[in-house]
Amino acid sequence: MKFTRRDVIRTSAAGLAAGALGSRFIGPAFAQEAPKYTPEQGATLRVLRWSPFVQGDEDAWIANTKKFTEATGVQVRIDKESWEDIRPKAAVAANVGSGPDIMWVWFDDAHQYPDKLLDVTDLADYLGNKYGGWYDGGKGYATKDGKFIGLPLAAIGNAIVYRDSWVKEAGFSEFPKDTAGFLELCKALQKIGHPAGFTHGHGVGDGNNYAHWLLWSHGGMMVDESGKVVINSPETMKSIEYAMELYKTFIPGTESWLDVNNNRAFLAGELSVIANGISAYRTAQINKDNDPKLAEIAKDIRTTNLPIGPVGKSVELHQTTTAVIFNYTPYPNAAKAYLQFMFEKEQMADWIEKSLGYCCQSLKAYADNPVWTSDPNAAAYSRASETLRPNGYAGPLGYASAATMADYVLVDMYARAVTGQASPQEAMEEAEKRANRYYRV
């Protein structure tokens, strides 16, 4: 297998699980009637996934892939790309009709090229019926016109990760649950030399998660139910003004951050509060025996869900990934057999557990995985698939919602306003103009 490397502190977890494939192999995973996908003669597969932030995720996926190869004889090559490179790589593969057989894509990217993807409704229906059904959020990203154009793979939860001792030093006995209190905390943390930091750059996960939370928590929307662009609104203005006040308390440079940057700064002790997956905590926890500084940080980390804004309820995006099969693959049966194997309990439950709370299940039957109760810091991530709000809210998912996110329209609106490159009104009007290029109602 070929693997690229990403400059990020790695975490690790060990372990394998046993499993079997299809009627040719006896095993409890196939106690129910399952689809029969006979791999094509001489089939090989190439899978392209995103680079992991929790090493146990990758290790478990590779180990389970090897079991698939042992069971079927189908060789599987796993490549990986940085988070930011996944979207353009998938778009190129779809357009030229060549590339990986299977790819892990983000959010509603599959809606940009649905006619280039294999219909996997039969497999999705089988898995959904067997394992308690798909969560609505992931299902929406993976379906179009009532058909599955991919399999919802996971939601990567986004939550507040903070240093408990510094929050107390700032005068707060507990982390604020509302946006007003959160702003006051960030001001206090800045005063004692332990600022917060949230991504205003083109981070596929962190940048989008933060921007959508800012908008939704104040009652704003990119589009209404009909798909009409309504970003130019009093609610959006209030969210921009709030973002500008928060930005004043941040560590310098967040406007250029990608997904890896807040992890690095937090684990270097430069930050007190970030919004991130559980990877920052797991990195410190796993590596604490070799680094006294990380041991101190791991002991001090707490997690909680993002504060509730004027809208009065929790509204969070959460990074979502879907496994798609491109219809140019010469081995569609082998590709379906591979995904079927990886989603069965013996493999999927193992992968979720080894991901250490980083990858939240897309099938409801896996919600009782012990990883969610093994550590209090996992609780904030345990319901990511259940509670996520799709990025196209409140309109339909499709090409327009996917393209608007891919163009970072919302992220750029906040970045331009908080850095003074544009006035709040100018930033909002620019976002409206850019979004209307994609939404033509």
UniProtKB/TrEMBL annotation:
<dbReference type="InterPro" id="IPR050490">
    <property type="entry name" value="Bact_solute-bd_prot1"/>
</dbReference>
<dbReference type="GO" id="GO:0042597">
    <property type="term" value="C:periplasmic space"/>
</dbReference>
<dbReference type="InterPro" id="IPR006059">
    <property type="entry name" value="SBP"/>
</dbReference>
<keyword id="KW-0813">Transport</keyword>
<dbReference type="InterPro" id="IPR019546">
    <property type="entry name" value="TAT_signal_bac_arc"/>
</dbReference>
<dbReference type="Pfam" id="PF13416">
    <property type="entry name" value="SBP_bac_8"/>
</dbReference>
<feature type="signal peptide">
    <location>
        <begin position="1"/>
        <end position="31"/>
    </location>
</feature>
<comment type="similarity">
    <text>Belongs to the bacterial solute-binding protein 1 family.</text>
</comment>
<keyword id="KW-0732">Signal</keyword>
<dbReference type="InterPro" id="IPR006311">
    <property type="entry name" value="TAT_signal"/>
</dbReference>
<protein>
    <submittedName>
        <fullName>Carbohydrate ABC transporter substrate-binding protein</fullName>
    </submittedName>
</protein>
<keyword id="KW-0574">Periplasm</keyword>
